[in-house]
Amino acid sequence: MSPPDRPAGGYRNAPHEDTPASLLAQREGSVVTLTINRPDRRNALDAATYGALSERIAQASADASVSAVILTGAGEHFTAGNDLRDFQSGRGPGDSAGLAFLRVLSTCEAPVIAAVEGYAIGIGVTLLQHCDFVHIGDAATLRMPFVALGLCPEGASSLLMPRLAGARRAARWLMQGKAFTAAEALQAGLATAVEPAGQALAAARQTAADLAAQPIAALRLTKAMLKRADRQAIQETLDYEAGQFRARLQTEEAQAAFARFFKK
């Protein structure tokens, strides 16, 4: 899953000098691929990476010639979730960078395809709810350990996860923080397909090629129609969860959990 060392044909580097190296962007035809590039931290998301993702996804959404966005991670993992150093300092998905990313992702007009390998933790799982197609390698591990960290759900997962996975699975995954497999994600409706380990990105590219063969205006309109009924509820839930998340970050309970994590 590692991105190429050298830009492939159609590669576009970030348009601003301050865009971090933690996100790689590549365009081939009408397909944009965004690769979270912090493999040394299992692609944990910090404020700079959130900002770069938001910018790139917003650009793809506004560009009527983009037929699909692929979201993946460099190296062996999709993303270990929010960088816990931000949590310990009182910042996180409730902060402007994380919330802006979730808003942009949830309203992207171009179809979004996730290619997941290795770990998908926290927001690495909840962001999948806003993707249109999700390909997961069969060795992947998914987990939403918000409660264990003294936190609460984010990414509109308190609304969307029970709808996708059912109330019982949502309680197990969100309240108990139980890890689950790619096969369980597929059974719950969170995944489109389970792929052999290491093949999620190839499968995502095939899906993107299928979408690129469709008339783009009709494709984008169909996505908008599929999302229309839930759009307001999702935005309201993002707001509510973000407020609760910000408050939880300041609690002794959460800060003690972060301290235990770093002590390990």
Number of strands: 9
Helix content: 40-55%
Give the radius of gyration: 17 Å
- Elements, N to C (H/E): EEHEHHEEHEEHHEHEHHHH
Extract low-pLDDT stretches. 1-17
Mind summarizing the main beta sheet? Answer: 6 strands, mixed
N→C terminal distance:
29 Å
Provide structural commentary:
- With 264 residues, this protein is α/β, with parallel strands linked by helices.
- 44% of the residues lie in helices and 15% in strands.
- It has helices at residues 47-62, 84-88, 96-106, 123-126, 157-165, 167-174, 182-188, 200-212, 216-228, 231-249, 252-263; strands spanning 23-28, 31-36, 68-73, 112-116, 119-121, 133-137, 141-143, 180-181, 193-195.
SSE layout:
Blueprint: E1 23-28, E2 31-36, H1 47-62, E3 68-73, H2 84-88, H3 96-106, E4 112-116, E5 119-121, H4 123-126, E6 133-137, E7 141-143, H5 157-165, H6 167-174, E8 180-181, H7 182-188, E9 193-195, H8 200-212, H9 216-228, H10 231-249, H11 252-263
Brief write-up:
The protein has 264 residues and is of the alpha/beta class. It has eleven helices and nine strands.
List keywords for this structure.
264 residues; alpha/beta; six-stranded mixed beta sheet; 11 helices; 44% helix; 15% strand
